[in-house]
Fold:
Amino acid sequence: MLRALSFLFVCLLGVFAMTVSTSAQSVSDKAKKLQSSSIVIDTHDDTTQRLLDPKFDIAARHTDGNIDIPRMRDGGLSAVFFSIWISGKILGPEAMKQALDQIDAVRETVRKHPSDLVLATTAEDVRDAKTHGKIAALMGVEGGHMMGNDLSVLRTFAALGVRYMTLTHMENNEWADSSTAKPEHNGLTDFGKEVVREMNRLGMIVDISHVSDKTFYDVIATSKAPVFASHSSCRSICNAARNMTDDMIRALSSNGGVIQINYHVGFLSQEFRDFEAAHPEAEKEINEEVKKRCGNNEGCTSVAGDQVVRDLMNSGKLPKVDWSLIVDHIDHAVKVAGVDHVGLGSDFDGAVMPLGMQDVTHIPQITDALLKKGYSESDTRKILGENTLRVLSEVQRVSRDLHSH
Ligand SMILES: [Zn+2]
Structure:
């Protein structure tokens, strides 16, 4: 989730004609076949915000937003991590209450759609879901502020089925520094290291998206299990603090982890970032437009922001960011880290999607592009989901080992 549409632009009011985005790219039969026979996992989706709206029906096909059951099926998605997210400014009992409400919303959504969705907490659960023709629903808590400074809350999240926690969101918390705030703790505090060790024991993946570089290296030095970046891209292509440097990507691969490439335009495209830096007044105007449309409804806010910015790209008022940049980031990360350490973490329903990737139905294009680039079927399967399953299995194994000692 990107709070504050911190990438946007200028003088737009009145130009929101609903321009139709670029049409679907053609996908080869070989890629379609590979997509449907592979485990395809997306490690970061903010659709939970929409699930909180009683009017939203995930079983219906929508023309807005990026995810629903019919479109996940069309895109060949096997498993999705629903993000449990609230602003890093909300703290204390209110933060825990809202996190529990979102966990409940995901669990209730799964309960109400038993022929399409199944709650998954292990790699085996994800494979079983695929075998039974269902989509595996997993959960990740996006922001350690939701557990406060209380390991019992972390253990409760794990008991309810949460399988990763992003240590920070855009703000620092009391035990870890974020990549988008002024450093306070020089990375992880001693308690932050205890959080990482407890996550290892509980079998939760430590998610290093959003954390500061120093926090990242502290996590790598502390964690006994592989970690991942649930939704980050490559800083050497697009210089955003939220992206990973090549050195970080290499350290992640030595740890056995995975960088899950984020599709957000402001993390994919340097041209887009440069443009936004040159037009600092833009953010306010777009935020005002989104606020006008959505009030305080978070589900509406992310969906509306995505639409507004994509309409502006289509009409030429913002630099056009093409979906193929996702493949450039994947390919770069593979060159740096090896093919065993790269995956997909779209940020659907929480960010601005590039042209040609307006929803989950378009992900087979990534498979097709990788095959056309010369990736083998087996390497492509790793990127689509097998690498993530390996991390899940390994985290489970470390948890079992820690319990037996
Ligand atoms: Zn995020």
Q: What stands out?
A: The radius of gyration is 19 Å.
